[in-house]
Amino acid sequence: MLIANISGQRVEASFANKGPTYHCPKCRDVVILKKGRIVTHHFAHKPPVRCSWAKGETREHLKAKQLFKQEFVRRGLRVEVEHEIPSLPNDRRADVVVWSPRGQKYALELQHTAIDYNSLENRTESYIHAGVRVIWVPFMRPKYWKEANELGPNVDGDFLIERFPARPLEKWVHGFNLGKFWMFDSDRNALWCAKLYKHEIYVEESSWFDPDGEKVSAGGYSRISRRWRELKLWGPYELEQVSIGAKKRSSKKMGNHNYPGGIVGEFVVKTKNDKLVP
Ligand SMILES: [Zn+2]
User: Fold this and answer.
1) pTM passes above 0.85
2) Domain shared by 260 and 225, yes or no
3) Domain range for 266
4) Distance from the CA of 6 to the center of ligand 1, in angstroms?
5) Ligand 1 centroid vs 68 CA: distance in angstroms?
6) 206-258 pLDDT, tens per residue?
7) Most Cβ neighbours (<10 Å): which of 59, 60, 188, 253?
Protein backbone atom coordinates (compact mmCIF):
# COMPACT_ATOMS: atom_id res chain seq x y z
CA MET A 1 0.00 0.00 0.00
CA LEU A 2 1.07 3.57 -0.67
CA ILE A 3 -0.48 5.21 2.40
CA ALA A 4 0.20 4.77 6.11
CA ASN A 5 -0.52 6.80 9.24
CA ILE A 6 2.00 8.68 11.31
CA SER A 7 0.68 10.42 14.44
CA GLY A 8 -2.84 10.17 13.01
CA GLN A 9 -1.89 11.78 9.68
CA ARG A 10 -1.89 10.09 6.28
CA VAL A 11 1.47 9.92 4.63
CA GLU A 12 2.41 8.66 1.19
CA ALA A 13 5.38 6.29 0.92
CA SER A 14 7.09 8.39 -1.75
CA PHE A 15 7.20 11.37 0.67
CA ALA A 16 8.00 9.35 3.81
CA ASN A 17 11.43 8.89 5.38
CA LYS A 18 12.82 5.87 7.16
CA GLY A 19 12.98 6.16 10.92
CA PRO A 20 9.55 6.98 12.34
CA THR A 21 6.96 4.31 13.13
CA TYR A 22 4.17 4.03 10.56
CA HIS A 23 0.85 2.33 11.10
CA CYS A 24 -1.63 0.68 8.78
CA PRO A 25 -4.75 2.89 8.55
CA LYS A 26 -6.90 -0.24 8.61
CA CYS A 27 -5.54 -2.66 11.23
CA ARG A 28 -3.26 -0.16 13.07
CA ASP A 29 -0.34 -2.60 13.01
CA VAL A 30 3.15 -1.27 12.42
CA VAL A 31 4.07 -1.24 8.72
CA ILE A 32 7.52 -1.04 7.19
CA LEU A 33 8.48 1.64 4.69
CA LYS A 34 10.03 0.07 1.58
CA LYS A 35 12.08 2.44 -0.50
CA GLY A 36 13.92 0.35 -3.07
CA ARG A 37 15.17 1.08 -6.56
CA ILE A 38 12.80 -1.12 -8.52
CA VAL A 39 9.50 -1.43 -6.74
CA THR A 40 7.33 1.66 -6.18
CA HIS A 41 7.94 3.00 -2.68
CA HIS A 42 5.30 1.52 -0.41
CA PHE A 43 4.45 0.26 3.05
CA ALA A 44 4.35 -3.44 3.90
CA HIS A 45 2.89 -5.38 6.83
CA LYS A 46 5.14 -7.67 8.85
CA PRO A 47 4.43 -11.37 8.57
CA PRO A 48 2.23 -13.10 9.48
CA VAL A 49 -0.08 -10.82 7.53
CA ARG A 50 -3.71 -10.88 8.61
CA CYS A 51 -4.82 -7.49 7.36
CA SER A 52 -7.22 -7.46 4.39
CA TRP A 53 -5.51 -4.33 3.04
CA ALA A 54 -2.28 -6.25 2.60
CA LYS A 55 -3.83 -8.80 0.27
CA GLY A 56 -3.95 -8.77 -3.51
CA GLU A 57 -1.42 -5.95 -3.86
CA THR A 58 0.98 -6.38 -6.78
CA ARG A 59 3.99 -4.37 -7.92
CA GLU A 60 2.13 -3.45 -11.09
CA HIS A 61 -0.83 -2.17 -9.09
CA LEU A 62 1.39 -0.02 -6.84
CA LYS A 63 3.16 1.41 -9.87
CA ALA A 64 -0.07 2.17 -11.72
CA LYS A 65 -1.57 4.06 -8.78
CA GLN A 66 1.59 6.13 -8.52
CA LEU A 67 1.74 6.88 -12.27
CA PHE A 68 -1.87 8.04 -12.50
CA LYS A 69 -1.37 10.19 -9.42
CA GLN A 70 1.75 11.83 -10.87
CA GLU A 71 0.00 12.55 -14.14
CA PHE A 72 -2.98 14.33 -12.54
CA VAL A 73 -0.73 16.20 -10.09
CA ARG A 74 1.22 17.40 -13.13
CA ARG A 75 -2.03 18.88 -14.45
CA GLY A 76 -2.49 20.79 -11.21
CA LEU A 77 -5.40 18.70 -9.93
CA ARG A 78 -5.99 17.41 -6.43
CA VAL A 79 -5.32 13.65 -6.37
CA GLU A 80 -5.28 11.06 -3.58
CA VAL A 81 -4.23 7.45 -3.80
CA GLU A 82 -5.98 4.84 -1.66
CA HIS A 83 -8.60 7.41 -0.74
CA GLU A 84 -11.28 6.06 1.58
CA ILE A 85 -14.91 6.44 0.60
CA PRO A 86 -16.91 5.40 3.68
CA SER A 87 -19.87 3.89 1.80
CA LEU A 88 -17.79 1.47 -0.30
CA PRO A 89 -18.31 -2.20 0.58
CA ASN A 90 -15.36 -4.29 1.85
CA ASP A 91 -12.18 -2.43 0.94
CA ARG A 92 -13.21 1.21 1.22
CA ARG A 93 -10.19 2.53 -0.63
CA ALA A 94 -10.53 3.88 -4.13
CA ASP A 95 -7.19 3.35 -5.90
CA VAL A 96 -6.93 6.90 -7.20
CA VAL A 97 -9.37 9.77 -6.68
CA VAL A 98 -9.07 12.87 -8.84
CA TRP A 99 -10.93 16.10 -8.10
CA SER A 100 -12.00 18.10 -11.13
CA PRO A 101 -11.38 21.87 -10.99
CA ARG A 102 -15.03 22.21 -9.89
CA GLY A 103 -14.59 19.67 -7.10
CA GLN A 104 -16.27 16.68 -8.74
CA LYS A 105 -14.70 13.40 -7.62
CA TYR A 106 -13.60 10.75 -10.09
CA ALA A 107 -12.39 7.33 -8.90
CA LEU A 108 -10.04 5.14 -10.89
CA GLU A 109 -10.39 1.47 -10.07
CA LEU A 110 -7.17 -0.02 -11.41
CA GLN A 111 -8.00 -3.68 -11.40
CA HIS A 112 -5.00 -5.99 -11.67
CA THR A 113 -6.52 -9.08 -10.07
CA ALA A 114 -9.73 -10.94 -10.84
CA ILE A 115 -13.01 -9.62 -9.44
CA ASP A 116 -16.50 -11.14 -9.51
CA TYR A 117 -19.74 -9.65 -10.82
CA ASN A 118 -21.19 -9.00 -7.34
CA SER A 119 -18.19 -6.98 -6.24
CA LEU A 120 -18.16 -4.99 -9.49
CA GLU A 121 -21.87 -4.23 -9.23
CA ASN A 122 -21.94 -3.41 -5.50
CA ARG A 123 -18.88 -1.22 -5.71
CA THR A 124 -20.13 0.63 -8.75
CA GLU A 125 -23.53 1.24 -7.19
CA SER A 126 -21.86 2.54 -4.07
CA TYR A 127 -19.72 4.96 -6.05
CA ILE A 128 -22.76 6.27 -7.88
CA HIS A 129 -24.65 6.81 -4.61
CA ALA A 130 -21.66 8.61 -3.13
CA GLY A 131 -21.61 10.95 -6.15
CA VAL A 132 -18.21 9.65 -7.25
CA ARG A 133 -17.75 8.96 -10.95
CA VAL A 134 -15.99 5.65 -11.33
CA ILE A 135 -13.79 4.39 -14.15
CA TRP A 136 -12.87 0.71 -14.11
CA VAL A 137 -9.49 -0.02 -15.68
CA PRO A 138 -8.55 -3.69 -16.15
CA PHE A 139 -4.85 -4.46 -16.60
CA MET A 140 -3.62 -6.02 -19.78
CA ARG A 141 -2.39 -9.57 -19.27
CA PRO A 142 1.03 -9.82 -20.97
CA LYS A 143 0.72 -13.50 -21.91
CA TYR A 144 -2.18 -12.79 -24.28
CA TRP A 145 -0.30 -9.89 -25.77
CA LYS A 146 2.03 -12.39 -27.47
CA GLU A 147 -0.88 -13.48 -29.65
CA ALA A 148 -1.78 -9.99 -30.80
CA ASN A 149 -1.74 -9.31 -34.54
CA GLU A 150 -1.05 -5.85 -35.84
CA LEU A 151 -3.84 -4.64 -38.07
CA GLY A 152 -3.24 -3.02 -41.43
CA PRO A 153 -3.42 0.71 -42.13
CA ASN A 154 -6.91 0.53 -43.64
CA VAL A 155 -8.44 -1.40 -40.76
CA ASP A 156 -10.15 0.24 -37.79
CA GLY A 157 -8.08 -0.65 -34.73
CA ASP A 158 -4.37 -1.26 -34.14
CA PHE A 159 -4.13 -4.82 -32.81
CA LEU A 160 -6.35 -7.88 -32.61
CA ILE A 161 -6.14 -10.80 -30.22
CA GLU A 162 -8.33 -13.43 -31.84
CA ARG A 163 -8.66 -15.74 -28.89
CA PHE A 164 -8.92 -13.75 -25.69
CA PRO A 165 -10.38 -15.50 -22.62
CA ALA A 166 -12.29 -12.49 -21.28
CA ARG A 167 -12.87 -12.61 -17.55
CA PRO A 168 -16.03 -11.36 -15.80
CA LEU A 169 -14.14 -8.08 -15.26
CA GLU A 170 -13.56 -7.33 -18.93
CA LYS A 171 -16.96 -8.57 -20.07
CA TRP A 172 -18.74 -6.53 -17.43
CA VAL A 173 -16.75 -3.34 -17.94
CA HIS A 174 -17.24 -3.59 -21.72
CA GLY A 175 -21.02 -3.56 -21.25
CA PHE A 176 -20.90 -1.01 -18.44
CA ASN A 177 -19.04 1.45 -20.70
CA LEU A 178 -21.52 0.80 -23.51
CA GLY A 179 -19.26 -1.24 -25.74
CA LYS A 180 -15.67 -0.29 -25.02
CA PHE A 181 -13.21 0.01 -22.15
CA TRP A 182 -9.66 1.03 -21.35
CA MET A 183 -6.87 -1.31 -20.29
CA PHE A 184 -3.70 -0.37 -18.48
CA ASP A 185 -0.50 -1.80 -19.92
CA SER A 186 2.06 -1.98 -17.13
CA ASP A 187 4.91 -2.87 -19.51
CA ARG A 188 4.45 0.34 -21.48
CA ASN A 189 2.87 2.48 -18.71
CA ALA A 190 0.19 3.29 -21.24
CA LEU A 191 -3.50 2.81 -21.94
CA TRP A 192 -5.26 0.92 -24.70
CA CYS A 193 -8.83 1.36 -25.78
CA ALA A 194 -10.44 -2.07 -26.15
CA LYS A 195 -13.54 -3.65 -27.63
CA LEU A 196 -14.74 -7.22 -27.38
CA TYR A 197 -16.32 -9.13 -30.24
CA LYS A 198 -17.77 -12.59 -30.52
CA HIS A 199 -15.34 -15.27 -31.57
CA GLU A 200 -16.66 -17.74 -34.12
CA ILE A 201 -15.42 -21.29 -34.27
CA TYR A 202 -15.82 -23.27 -37.47
CA VAL A 203 -16.95 -26.81 -36.83
CA GLU A 204 -15.52 -28.99 -39.64
CA GLU A 205 -17.96 -31.08 -41.57
CA SER A 206 -17.62 -34.80 -41.07
CA SER A 207 -19.71 -37.80 -42.10
CA TRP A 208 -19.91 -41.41 -41.03
CA PHE A 209 -22.21 -44.43 -41.36
CA ASP A 210 -24.62 -45.29 -38.58
CA PRO A 211 -25.29 -48.97 -37.58
CA ASP A 212 -28.03 -49.23 -40.24
CA GLY A 213 -25.59 -48.21 -42.98
CA GLU A 214 -27.12 -44.73 -43.38
CA LYS A 215 -24.70 -41.93 -44.11
CA VAL A 216 -24.85 -39.21 -41.43
CA SER A 217 -23.12 -35.81 -41.60
CA ALA A 218 -22.51 -33.12 -39.05
CA GLY A 219 -20.57 -29.91 -38.78
CA GLY A 220 -19.89 -27.52 -41.60
CA TYR A 221 -21.09 -24.50 -39.64
CA SER A 222 -19.80 -21.79 -37.35
CA ARG A 223 -20.73 -21.37 -33.73
CA ILE A 224 -20.04 -18.65 -31.19
CA SER A 225 -17.36 -19.59 -28.68
CA ARG A 226 -18.33 -19.34 -25.04
CA ARG A 227 -14.74 -19.32 -23.92
CA TRP A 228 -13.12 -16.90 -26.33
CA ARG A 229 -13.73 -13.34 -27.35
CA GLU A 230 -11.88 -11.28 -29.91
CA LEU A 231 -10.16 -8.30 -28.35
CA LYS A 232 -9.47 -5.33 -30.58
CA LEU A 233 -7.13 -2.65 -29.34
CA TRP A 234 -6.50 0.98 -30.19
CA GLY A 235 -3.30 2.51 -28.90
CA PRO A 236 -1.11 2.66 -26.97
CA TYR A 237 -1.89 6.07 -25.49
CA GLU A 238 0.35 7.78 -22.97
CA LEU A 239 -1.41 8.84 -19.79
CA GLU A 240 -0.83 12.48 -20.69
CA GLN A 241 -3.00 12.05 -23.82
CA VAL A 242 -5.99 10.97 -21.78
CA SER A 243 -8.66 13.28 -20.34
CA ILE A 244 -11.41 12.37 -17.96
CA GLY A 245 -15.03 12.89 -18.88
CA ALA A 246 -18.41 11.83 -17.57
CA LYS A 247 -21.46 10.18 -18.99
CA LYS A 248 -24.82 9.06 -17.78
CA ARG A 249 -25.88 5.47 -18.13
CA SER A 250 -29.21 3.91 -17.28
CA SER A 251 -29.56 0.89 -15.05
CA LYS A 252 -29.91 -2.24 -17.09
CA LYS A 253 -29.92 -5.98 -16.75
CA MET A 254 -28.15 -7.72 -19.62
CA GLY A 255 -27.82 -11.49 -19.32
CA ASN A 256 -26.07 -12.09 -16.01
CA HIS A 257 -24.83 -8.49 -15.74
CA ASN A 258 -26.68 -5.88 -13.67
CA TYR A 259 -25.54 -2.40 -14.53
CA PRO A 260 -26.37 0.32 -12.01
CA GLY A 261 -27.55 3.59 -13.53
CA GLY A 262 -26.10 7.02 -12.86
CA ILE A 263 -23.22 9.25 -13.79
CA VAL A 264 -19.92 7.49 -14.32
CA GLY A 265 -16.49 8.52 -15.49
CA GLU A 266 -14.79 7.76 -18.78
CA PHE A 267 -11.45 8.34 -20.42
CA VAL A 268 -11.45 10.47 -23.53
CA VAL A 269 -8.63 10.55 -26.06
CA LYS A 270 -8.45 12.61 -29.18
CA THR A 271 -6.07 11.78 -31.98
CA LYS A 272 -4.04 14.34 -33.93
CA ASN A 273 -6.87 15.02 -36.37
CA ASP A 274 -9.20 15.60 -33.40
CA LYS A 275 -11.02 12.33 -33.91
CA LEU A 276 -12.35 10.51 -30.86
CA VAL A 277 -10.83 7.10 -30.08
CA PRO A 278 -12.06 4.67 -31.28
ZN1 LIG B 1 -3.27 -3.48 8.04
Assistant:
1) yes
2) yes
3) 57-278
4) 14
5) 24
6) 999 999 999 999 998 999 998 899 999 999 999 999 999 999 999 999 999 99
7) 60
